[in-house]
Amino acid sequence: MDIWGFIISKFNYWVYITLMMVGLYAMIAKKNLMKKLIGMNIFQTAIILYFISIGAKRNATIPIVKHANDHGYAISNAIQYVNPLPHVLMLTAIVVCVSTTGVALALLIMIYREYKTIEEDEILELRK
Amino acid sequence: MMHQAPILVVFIPLMTAFLTPIIGAWRKNLCYPLTIAATLLSFISSIGILIAVIKNGTIHYRLGDWEPPWGIEYAVDYFSGYILVIIAFICFMTTVYAGKGIKKEVGEERAVTFTTIYMLLVVGLLGVVITGDVFNLYVFLEIQSLSAYVLVAVGPRRDALVASFNYLILGTIGATFYLLGIGYLYIITGTLNMADLAARLPMLYHTKVALTAFALFTIGLSIKFALFPLHTWLLGAHSEAPSVVSAILAGAVLKVNVYALLRIMFTVFQAEFILKVIPVTKIFLVLAVTAIIVGSVLTVAQTNIKRMLALSSVGQMGYIVLGVALANRTAMTGSLLHILNHSLMKSALFLIAGRVSYRIGSYDLDAWKGLGRKMPFSMAAFTIAGLSMIGVPLTVGFVSKWYLAIGALEAGMWFIVPVIILSSLLAAVYFWRVIEGIYFPEKSGASSQNPEVSNSSLKDDTPISMLIPIFILAGLCILFGIAAFIPVSVAEKAANMLLGGM
């Protein structure tokens, strides 16, 4: 397989890794605490994207038992339906993500009230 | 009733967390007995579970009666039973202390909110230990971490906010790495149940996906329990939090994250993978030795008691990882014992620090001079716990260090022994400084210049409910040091189980 085929066939992974690195970079390099928080959100979203993409499938159906007009059941084959589990896991992960962001924003408000700034270097200056 | 105990351990604190704000709105003073009752019940159930495990072997509990690979399973074996009792006990002790202990640091008006979040922290801690499902573990891990961030932020000084924010950012990176690890394992195995993963993974040990997942789990959880180069959040979070929160952070939260890592390393992946497929034990060995030395050296430089106690956790976590890295039965036993010992000692020390600061309002080394006569009971307990941290014989600290040293010799790594001795000497330096100041202040010492101390020395107004947990914890430091066979018997079985057929 040539290099382009390798990249394109796994493009969802490349996208998630790029996003994850963007988030990680922002958390490490940015001095502004708000930007750090945004980086953290991008980082978490990248993981959500990863999980969703591994559960995605074209032209697939939902995993439920079909009733065929009182003629018994027709259970769809595993090949025909989308595995819902990664998506369901992400519902929980989104809840976690939202609550973490909520706590972090509340902290930022309180930090701003106490220090009158959310720049990390200025806060370090004030703590001396 | 007994077969429902695994769910009760988590369910009781969870319900209490919901009830606390409701009851708190009606009668504020009912919250404290309620939380004590809840944590006591949890503790009793956890003991019941451990006894049942010792009698009948591993307990499996199906949530909602769904068969394990589909539903969530709670599984308790020797290892989780042992940790569960420790965590439930530390939670119980700190809850008893918290009733009065948070008055000055948190404030009366925030007490109900504090208690609610505190109970959620307990839910998260116990849940991580008891669950047998990797994703459920993630959820409990986040419940526990989120409540920990909030509890750090209510610390008395404004620096607590920044410390909490740093903790939140790093903790979230850790948890997200863990979540990504779950994703990788799910891709190749299609299951989230630990026992099921353990059955399906051995044939996939050499795939890159399994290796990546393992790396993500290890790094993610190492951030959470502050393994040496990833410990930067620890100093701020543990020293700025209210003392009772520091006690539970050092005594239970760190331990639960170590537990999660060991669970992943030895149950999901097995000892064979750890020892033969990748050199993780060698990496851990280097990190653990560095953590022990650097942690101790950093600690010696501190003049604030609370910062000193917080930093010494870095070295102590190094000991726990050291036993895992040596990966033989004796060292592993030492490691598991050190989880218990460090929980007892560090919680006791933080609680005492909190009690002293309740009285004299300072964590400064100078302000503590001459306290031996003013607060004899607290200071006796501090001395016991301090000696135990150093590792003096007849205290628990000695037992685990002894097992670790013997384990190192068995593994043929004699150079570990001088490291343990050096670190113990450094611990002696930093604790002796405090103990000497407490009992033998110089004549022109700081205590006479410190008006706060001399004024408050007239009457001891600290509540008795703050002293009881300190006594029990310090007493156990001695009891388990003398009757070491009680924890050793369980820890040995747990270590055997973790190392499997090795």
Short description:
The complex is a heterodimer of chains A (128) and B (502). Chain A has 128 residues and is mainly α. Chain A is built from five helices and two strands; from the N terminus they run H-H-H-E-E-H-H.
Your description of this structure?
The complex is a heterodimer of chains A (128) and B (502). By secondary structure, chain A is mainly alpha-helical. Chain A has five helices and two strands, in the order αααββαα. A two-stranded antiparallel sheet of chain A has the order 1-2. In chain A, helix 2 (11-29) packs antiparallel against helix 3 and helix 3 packs antiparallel against helix 4 (85-115). The mean pLDDT of chain A is 85. Chain B is mostly helical and 502 residues long. Helices cover 78% and strands 2% of the residues of chain B. Chain B is built from 22 helices and two strands. Chain B has helices spanning 5-26, 31-56, 78-106, 111-130, 134-153, 159-189, 194-200, 208-224, 232-240, 243-268, 271-277, 280-300, 305-326, 329-360, 371-374, 376-390, 396-410, 416-439, 446-449, 451-456, 464-482, 485-499; strands spanning 59-62, 73-76. Mean pLDDT of chain B is 87; it is low at 444-449 and 451-458. Chains A and B meet through helix 3 and helix 4 of A and helix 5 and helix 6 of B.
Strand order of the largest sheet of chain B: 1-2
Total helix count of chain A? Answer: 5
What overall geometry of chain A do the principal axes of the alpha carbons give? elongated
- Strand order in the largest sheet of chain A: 1-2
Q: Could you tell me the mean pLDDT of chain A?
A: 85
Structural class of chain B: mainly alpha
The oligomeric status of these chains comes to heterodimer
Give helix % range of chain A: 55-70%
Report how far apart the termini of chain A are: 58 Å
Largest interface: A-B, 30 and 25 residues
How many β-strand runs of chain B?
Answer: 2
Please compute the radius of gyration of chain B using only Cα atoms: 22 Å
Uncertain spans of chain A: none
Structural class of chain A: mainly alpha
Estimate the strand proportion of chain B: under 5%
Helical percent range of chain B?
over 70%
Question: How many E strands of chain A?
Answer: 2
Count of alpha/pi helices of chain B: 22
Distance between the termini of chain B: 37 Å
